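hey so i finally got around to running the thing on that chain from the lab meeting. sorry it took forever, my laptop kept dying and i had to restart like 3 times. anyway pasting the input first so we r on the same page abt which one it is
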Amino acid sequence: MRFCGALALGATAAALAGCLSYENHVVAGNADGVIIQYFGDRAATVPLARQHCAQYERVPRFVSEDEDKKATYACVAPDLRRFENGGINLKLTLITDFLRR
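ok and heres what got predicted. didnt touch it at all, straight out
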């Protein structure tokens, strides 16, 4: 009987230890972006953001972070990644490219 009690206590401790793991993870996301909860360095969120955005054939662009250690990334088309203000700059780039033809 003591063995069963010790076994149950050990199993409970192991289960609780799993709940206390501090791993970066996706909190929310869709084709437009992703929010990642992180612990430690924000740079460690980049692989998760890339993996998430790749599902939609997009790449991540860092947007912001907050005091709760959540990093927000926009998922953008690979060639639009360099634009800060996608709407206006994209139109200007498209017009410029067209005029160069």
